[in-house]
């Protein structure tokens, strides 16, 4: 497992030395990880990256060469470097499991512990959670546009570097992709690997037919032929049909063809007709070429005859929305378990933080559909037998009364006193869980364009606490 201890911003280390020098290193802090707006103008995001956060925490330790490098910067004193030498995370982490639909302002992770430790974690946690959550969300949109057609992740060559290719393939699988072309991701995470051929294979042979036959000889039962090197309907599909029939005559199953250019709707319909007429009704048609959720949705609704989609660049780079702006904000600080809520003020009301140690409660109706989430204080209880009126924390007149609800707390314990108390699910389990979880959201929340906004409110107690703190800060400033 990779040691990512040095994957941090310099200022985390300077602040840590500052705490050590000021005697505040043992102060306890609670940080929330959350994002403020949904990517893709979508209706939800899918949480991902927790497994990498767990690995990061479990491998946190500065090696001799790390300490030597830090010493060489001539910024840090020996007392601090020595302290880093025995650095371990000894705090608590609660997190929303990977594959859960999540919404703005909800703490996806809550980190509690000595400020000396919790400050260091910000950069790596955000790096991991922001990227994987973004790609899992993008993949989920692409998969939903494919409406049951398999989506194969093809992006490694265009990913923003090797790590993004591998972790992106993992996140894409959480979002519902069926397979990846990325062999390292397949090996590391047990993702099914799949693929076809490149144009170079076809070009290497004197003719397209010979290229197809050579591939069919090598992989008679894994034969998906790329048909657009010369001319799809006049050459590629007729040659693929010849080879497909030869394979079937020998008792093999011909898988199908891949289209990688041109009008994918027209070509797939024509190719389907030709394959069917030749008796290759089971042969599938895979499409690729700069696809994303919008093109897939358009092509599918035009009536294309496409069974599976190969999606690379737009998915792995999240091209239409390349970042998720997750932040790591201090919500409480204290000593010996006695915490005081803390708040960050901003002129921009969306940037004022939510104070205190919080939890996220999801409210379901009797049919199991998610109705709303509340960000609440840790010790609050919501009685399932009672009515509950919730309200928008900004437009407070917007109210909704929940009745007959079931509740579920989304944050679950992952580390206690530095020890892991959470069993990491395997990736197949996470994918299945994500699919089930998406089934609890209304279609209106999931639709790709102009979705309904899912309700995420603050509990009355948290709202009250926030108002009080804002008022106190405001009055303090006025008096100065
Ligand atoms: N029927 C369709 N409706 C909407 N978009 C489509 C349809 N068919 C293909 N597309 C998309 O249109 C774009 C076409 O790309 P482009 O203009 O580069 O043509 P091309 O066929 O890839 O040409 P080239 O031969 O250079 O590869 C791709 O993003 C593709 O996914
Ligand atoms: O289009 P993407 O969604 O990124 O999917 C991956 C693309 O990569 C391959 O092409 P190649 O690298 O040869 O490039 P090209 O076909 O785009 O020229 C493949 O044939 C797809 O077209
Ligand atoms: O296997 C394929 O067809 C493939 C793999 C990576 C990128 N494009 C296509």
UniProtKB/TrEMBL annotation:
Domain annotation Nicotinate phosphoribosyltransferase C-terminal: ranges: 358-466
All copies of domain Nicotinate phosphoribosyltransferase N-terminal, residue ranges: 6-130
GO terms under biological process: NAD+ biosynthetic process via the salvage pathway
Signal peptide: none
Pathway: Cofactor biosynthesis; NAD(+) biosynthesis; nicotinate D-ribonucleotide from nicotinate: step 1/1
Key words, A-Z: Glycosyltransferase, Ligase, Phosphoprotein, Pyridine nucleotide biosynthesis, Transferase
Annotated InterPro entries: Aldolase_TIM, N/Namide_PRibTrfase, NAPRTase_C, NAPRTase_N, Nic_PRibTrfase-Fam, Nic_PRibTrfase_pncB, Nicotinate_pribotase-like_C
Gene Ontology terms for molecular function: nicotinamide phosphoribosyltransferase activity; nicotinate phosphoribosyltransferase activity
Top EC group: ligase
Chemical reaction(s) catalysed: 5-phospho-alpha-D-ribose 1-diphosphate + nicotinate + ATP + H2O = nicotinate beta-D-ribonucleotide + ADP + phosphate + diphosphate
One GO term describing the cellular component: cytosol
Modification comment: Transiently phosphorylated on a His residue during the reaction cycle. Phosphorylation strongly increases the affinity for substrates and increases the rate of nicotinate D-ribonucleotide production. Dephosphorylation regenerates the low-affinity form of the enzyme, leading to product release.
Top-level taxon in the UniProt lineage: Bacteria
Domain Nicotinate/nicotinamide phosphoribosyltransferase: 151-329
EC number from the UniProt entry: 6.3.4.21
Record-stated family: Belongs to the NAPRTase family.
Function: Catalyzes the first step in the biosynthesis of NAD from nicotinic acid, the ATP-dependent synthesis of beta-nicotinate D-ribonucleotide from nicotinate and 5-phospho-D-ribose 1-phosphate.
Listed name of the protein: Nicotinate phosphoribosyltransferase
Species for this entry: Desulfosporosinus orientis (strain ATCC 19365 / DSM 765 / NCIMB 8382 / VKM B-1628 / Singapore I) (Desulfotomaculum orientis)
């Amino acid at each position: 497992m990779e040691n990512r201890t040095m994957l941090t911003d310099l200022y985390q280390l300077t602040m840590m030395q500052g705490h050590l020098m000021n005697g505040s290193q043992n102060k306890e802090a609670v940080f929330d990880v959350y994002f403020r707006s949904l990517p893709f103008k979508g209706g939800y995001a899918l949480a991902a990256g927790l497994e990498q956060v767990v690995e990061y925490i479990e491998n946190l330790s500065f090696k001799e060469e790390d300490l030597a490098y830090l010493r060489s910067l001539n910024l840090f004193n020996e007392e601090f470097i020595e302290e880093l030498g025995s650095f371990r995370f000894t705090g608590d982490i609660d997190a929303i499991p990977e594959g859960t639909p999540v919404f703005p302002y909800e703490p996806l992770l809550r980190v509690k512990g000595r400020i000396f430790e919790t400050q260091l974690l910000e950069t790596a946690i955000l790096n991991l959670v922001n990227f994987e959550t973004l790609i899992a969300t993008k993949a989920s949109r692409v998969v939903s546009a494919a409406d049951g057609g398999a989506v194969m992740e093809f992006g490694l060559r265009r990913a923003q570097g090797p790590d993004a290719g591998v972790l992106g393939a993992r996140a894409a699988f959480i979002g519902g992709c069926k397979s990846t072309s990325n062999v390292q991701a397949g090996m590391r995470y047990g993702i099914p690997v799949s693929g076809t051929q490149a144009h170079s294979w076809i070009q290497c042979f004197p003719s397209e037919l010979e290229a197809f036959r050579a591939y069919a000889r090598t992989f008679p039962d894994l034969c998906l032929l790329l048909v657009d090197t010369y001319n799809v309907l006049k050459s590629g599909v007729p040659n693929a049909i010849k080879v497909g029939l030869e394979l079937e005559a020998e008792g093999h199953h011909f898988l199908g063809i891949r289209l990688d250019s041109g009008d994918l709707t027209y070509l797939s319909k024509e190719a389907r007709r030709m394959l069917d007429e030749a008796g290759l009704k089971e042969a599938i048609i895979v499409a690729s070429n700069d696809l994303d959720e919008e093109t897939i949705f358009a092509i599918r609704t035009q009536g294309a005859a496409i069974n599976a989609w190969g999606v690379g660049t737009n998915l792995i780079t999240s091209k239409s929305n390349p970042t998720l702006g997750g932040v790591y904000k201090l919500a409480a600080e204290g000593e010996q378990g006695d915490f005081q809520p803390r708040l960050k003020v901003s002129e921009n009301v969306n940037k004022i933080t939510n104070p205190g140690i919080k939890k996220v409660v999801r409210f379901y109706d009797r049919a199991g559909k998610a109705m709303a989430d509340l960000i609440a204080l840790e010790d609050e209880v919501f009685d399932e037998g009672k009515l509950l009126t919730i309200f928008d924390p900004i437009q407070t007149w917007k109210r909704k009364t929940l009745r007959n609800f079931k509740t579920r707390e989304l944050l679950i314990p992952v580390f206690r006193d530095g020890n892991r108390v959470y069993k990491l699910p395997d990736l197949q389990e996470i994918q299945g869980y994500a699919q089930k979880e998406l089934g609890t959201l209304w279609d209106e929340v999931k639709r790709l364009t102009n979705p309904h906004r899912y309700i995420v409110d603050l509990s009355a107690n948290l709202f009250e606490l926030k108002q009080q703190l804002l008022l106190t800060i405001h009055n303090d400033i006025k008096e100065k």
